[in-house]
Amino acid sequence: MVKSNEVLLEIKDLQIQGFSEERWVDIIKGVDLTLHKGEVMGLIGESGAGKSTIGAAAMGYARDGTRISGGSIEFDGMELTTATEEEKRSLRGSRIAYVAQSAAASFNPAHKLIDQHTEAPLQYRLKKRTEAQEDAVELYRQLRLPNPEEIGFRYPHQVSGGQLQRAMTAMAMSCRPDLIIFDEPTTALDVTTQIEVLAAIRDIVDQYNTAAIYITHDLAVVAQMADTIKVLLKGEEVEEAETKEMLDNPKEDYTKSLWAVRSFKRSQKERPKDGVPLISVKNVDAAYTGGQKVLDDVSFDIYEGMTVAVVGESGSGKSTTARVITGLLPPMNGEVQFKGEALPPDYRNRTKDQLRQAQMIYQMADTALNPKVQISEIIGRPAQFYQGLRGSALKSRVDELLDMIELEPSHFYNRYPPELSGGQKQRIGIARALAAEPTFIICDEVTSALDQLVAEGILRLLDRLQKELNLAYMFITHDLATVRAIADEVVVMQHGKVVEQGPKEQMFTPPHHPYTDLLLSSVPEMDPDWLTTLLEERGVDNVGDAASAQIDTDASKVGGSKQGAQQESGG
Amino acid sequence: MGDILGLIAKRLGLGLVILFVISIIIFFMVELLPGDIAQAVLGQGATEENVAALRKEMGLDKPAPVRYLEWLGGAVTFDFGNSIVTDEKVTTLIGERFKNTLFLASYAAVIAVPLAIILGIIVALLRNSIFDRVVNVATLTSISSPEFFLGYILILYFAVNWGMFPAISSLSEDMTMWELLNRTFLPALTLVLVVTAHMMRMTRAAIINLLASPYIEMARLKGAPPWKVIVKHALPNAWAPIINVVALNLAYLITGVVLVEVVFVYPGIGQALVDAVSKRDFPVVQACCLIFAGTFILLNLAADVGAILTNPRLRHPK
Amino acid sequence: MNFFVIGYYALLLGASCLAAYMNRRAIFLLLFSLTLVSFILGIIGGVAALRAVTIAAGLLALAGMVAYGFREFLVQLSEGNVGRPLRESGGVFLIILLILAALAFASNSFDWGLAEIFVAIGVLLLIIVPLSPETAKELRRAPLTATFGLFVIFTYIVAGIFSSVIAPHGEAEVIASAFAPADDTMLLGADQLGRDIFSRLIYGTRNSVGLALAATVAAFILGAVAGLLAATKGGWFDQLMGRVADVIMSIPSLIFALLMLSIFGPSIPVIIGAVAIIYAPRVFRLTRAVAGNVVVMDYIEAAKLRGEGTWYLIRKEILPNSTAPLVAEFGLEFCFVFLLVAGLSFLGLGIQPPTADWGSMVRENATLISFGDITPLIPAAAIALLTVAVNFVVDWMLHRSSGLKE
Fold first, then answer.
1. Closest chain B C-alpha to C308 CA, distance in angstroms
2. What pLDDT was estimated at residue C142?
3. Count of structural domains within chain B
């Protein structure tokens, strides 16, 4: 990597305002940024930190409803805040390019990929049409897109998400810009797809020595991509340092809290020697009305007081499994047993007591709590509904529940969900589940929408409650760190099938099923050399979609045998 | 392409089914009359024999489904039977009037459609400016006014006070085109005012919706000049919503035309319908209703087919 | 050139310069373009045109001031939180309303002459309920058009309830010769039968608006209940209702209304029934869509899995989260219904004489227009004004609930 000391972009005391509720409010409050030629800077922060806004401002662009209200943006000697619209426009696409989060929405559905690709070079008269097209094909090849010769002649909706994201990177490269803004380019992708997009982006940026601003909320991803990292919080800079320095030695408390590796760990429990499983999913096939089969012969057991983590990518059927267990989606074949007895497939036919036993906690606490109902009623309703509590008995039960989730009862009793923070809402969701006095709780990605520290608090709370109330958890997640922290057993799913299952220790030690292996290896780690090492170990063709396609063919064979073995040992 | 043809065929089939259901509703609604048509026509004072004779004459002695099939068979060949009041053929009564109505509606549409779409796009581009707000208030006022209010105001100023156009649109065979356009200007203008306001608001909403798409922002960030953003990136995706807006408003014209015809005493089918309703001339009412509903369905159908044809996702299937 | 014209341009130019100096771009643009337009108007229409512009501007300013004042008034009331006791009383409030309704009904049937008072108290209580500090916050940000709309609606309510007190003459009382001009006793002159137009206009508020309101309520109850049930139950009921709505909506509303009126004859129950059938599908679609967005929320799933019944789901979980769009939709439907009913009565198929009704008043006196008399247009303007007012309020509510997506 050739890095010069020549400054490409210099932002000083940038202030941006957004229009909300009929007045202008500050959303970026004085941020400085210096980017050298060929340097990749990671911008990191939670949603609402203003990362994207700064990214757009680096192009002299203010989105609708925002305005640049102060400071200076100097790109290669040109002041963008005072430049005319015409001058700024002549930079965009040619010298500064942009890669958006959702490639599917950011490609115009009415034009072929290659026509959108060649738009900028043709407009700036850098190349003739045929030259530009040849160049596009060359870039597609470098970004390892399948069929580089003809993929450009397709329409956006005919190409998959991961490929579109690479095509968009190619489009950004079309004029060989000095600077590319990557705005969360892999956030919408699955981990196995993400890895090949990351690899492709990194290679091409390296090859042309392009400077980049890489915006993301994922620390592990930014560690792979960036030379320097800048941490933002609510429109202000927290700190900036070289990637290695930042990872090893963060200075500010906020950064440390982001960097904090999960300290929470608990010992793994064993299944009781001879007992009936609390919940037993037996050979379940399921499909949504009129659709394809989404679950194919899924079987696993959950024992009392234990935590089973179900992992897999989007579309693997983990949430559908939860819907089958709760009875929202009656299975086509197979059944769900509770303490050895079959539950009615449809929740409408289950008794109050059966419904009470299994409760759910949701990923998005925002949509899980009715915004127009007071906390006391949200928590009180199940107690009233199942146990028939009323008056002061109900009130003391609600107080008890609020105590259990470590929230001060008098302070929260009369409030509404929108007034609470994300972590508090998630706790209320837990209290609602507990109010039914269940034996089994399904936790659907409960920590993935929360910040690191808050998430850890929730995990600790869940663990404490499990010990106190002997609850069984089914933990649906794609985050392997969470699995390592809390699970006793792990079930890995792919394309609606269980590919591997067993106790946690066993699952995290090789040999793995190839898919588990791919999944485990694709999750970015906080080590800046992780991607390089991985690519060296596996080779570029053995990651991402290509690898998962190879697995698909023999998945049933290997998965089936291992799963069979597991069942024998379990039963 | 097979996909697209299938979708269009499906939509056409659905249109036919709806038209069929509506013909059933229109026909059997009359059957809900207390007593029957013969009774209703002759009134309370009629003797039993007279009523029975009329029943026989009108074929009311046959069971309703048979009469429905006969009526439907006639309707397909534009034969709606005879008027109860004048005993003329319904087709001769409303045929010429239908043409007049179509003329008036197209007159209004030719002015309103381009005007509304161009203004709608301009307002969308200038959104949140003072111009946008003024236009918003003006169009809201226009769509909130009953058609007869607008019509009479136009008469008051353009016909009575300033004498620029005739207040009453009497038509005759030997008029020149210019005379025709001049005489029907006020009713057409009334329709234009109402429909343009509706259409502008809807076009504005559709365009603003479109301009918020990420691919428009992407085009801007690629350095495309504003005209190119609109022409190359927004317009190819705007056809479907615009076609929809136009068809919806042409359908709205159909209803608006009834009141406007009455205000300007214009010899159209709407006027005929209103007369028939007050005289309880059921064959004419049924025929008019079927024609209005048919046109309405046809326009909605055209909108949906247009939307299918211009959708790039459907034109280039996977 | 007279003093008026000089003053006119001086004022306009001065104001636009002031706006430019104060950096109020929008106001400057508006004033200056008005100046330019005035040149053209002045050349074509002379002083009279400029006078008309002045009068229009004056009226606008007046409306603006009324709206501003009314907004401040409502904000003050809301800050005082006058609605609080009513909101917290719950059931008691409902009982009070029922008692008032019963009293009004009794008063009407036994001729105590107090019906207006009871109705007025009831309506006043209903208006007070939403007044809270949160409303004050919303109102402060409300555009003047919206508060102007609220003011107009308020005026119509007063005129509707107290019509018999306000109107100087009886509804069908013949007091003069046909088309007698305005004099001391008749503000707007007499109609084609010699009845006082002003009195009939006031009575028309009660009849026309009342009928439209009743019809809207009927359509709304029908459509909203079906929509909520379809959203919660789903399955075949949802499908069936959707198809029925499709069919009804593919007949133009006015045509369908004319068909039904020709068969059952124009009477108030028939009109209400016809309008309910015609507009219920529109309400159904919207309610279905709004409730459909709520039904996919996880808290609904949680409640379903708890074993809650349909009624609980609708009442406790869905309705509180869809009130804002439904209220806006009610306003919008009211406008459509009001225009349709006005159209019908203009065609002579609405409320039958001698009951005063705005639509038919226009038709009955239309001949006066050919003599350049604007009196027949006043009822039509009354219709337009109320519809505009409701639309302004609805526009604000929709804008508020959609946030600032633009």
1. 38
2. 86
3. 2
Tell me the CATH number for domain C200-402: 1.10.3720.10
φ, ψ dihedrals at A236, nearest 5°: -130, 150
Are B83 and B93 spatial neighbours (Cβ–Cβ below 8 Å)? yes
Contact across the interface for C302 and A362, Cβ inside 8 Å: yes
Query: Are B100 and B66 members of one domain?
Result: no
Q: Give me the CATH number covering residue B162.
A: 1.10.3720.10
Residues B174 and B39 in one domain: no
| A189: alpha, beta or left? (left if phi > 0; alpha if psi -120 to 50) | beta
pLDDT tens profile A258-303: 766 556 677 777 787 777 889 999 899 988 877 788 888 899 999 9
Query: How far apart (Å, rounded) are the C-alpha atoms in residues A145 and C334?
Result: 57
The CA distance from C148 to C135, in Å, is: 16
**A417 interfaces chain C, CB cutoff of 8 Å:** no
Q: Alpha-carbon distance C379 to A300, whole Å?
A: 74
ipTM of the prediction = 0.87
**Residue A158 DSSP one-character state:** G
- Boundary-marking domain end, from B33, B48, B76: B76
How many CB contacts within 8 angstroms connect chain A with chain C? 57
In the predicted model, is pLDDT for residue B102 greater than 80? yes
Point out the domain boundary residue: B42, B76, B110.
Answer: B76
Q: Do A491 and A501 touch, CB atoms closer than 8 A?
A: yes
Same domain for B114 and B44, yes or no, is no
Are B282 and B243 within one domain?
A: yes
Q: What is the pTM of this model?
A: 0.85
Q: What domain range is B156 assigned to? A: 96-315
Q: Is residue C163 a contact partner of residue C396, using CB atoms and an 8 Å limit? A: no
Residue A219 CA to chain centroid, in angstroms? 12
pLDDT along chain C (406 residues), means of 10: 84 90 83 88 84 89 93 89 77 85 83 80 85 84 90 93 85 79 79 85 91 94 92 87 89 89 87 93 91 89 90 88 87 92 90 86 86 86 94 87 46
Beta-carbon separation of B21 and C247 below 8 A = yes
DSSP B76-100: HTT---B-TTT--BHHHHHHHHHHH
| CB–CB contact A64 B212 (8 Å) | yes
Please judge whether A367 and C302 are an interchain contact, meaning their C-beta atoms are less than 8 angstroms apart.
no
> What is the mean pLDDT of the segment spanning A114-142?
88
* Cβ of residue B296 closer than 8 Å to a chain C Cβ: yes
Chains in touch with C (3+ beta-carbon pairs under 8 Å) read A, B
C102 contact A CB<8A:
no
Domains of chain A with CATH codes: 279-371+422-513 (3.40.50.300)
pLDDT, position C164: 84
* Cβ within 8 Å, pair C316-A373: yes
pLDDT tens for residues C22-48?
Answer: 888 878 888 888 889 888 888 887 888
B23, two tokens: 């013909």
Tokens read off for C168: 């100087």
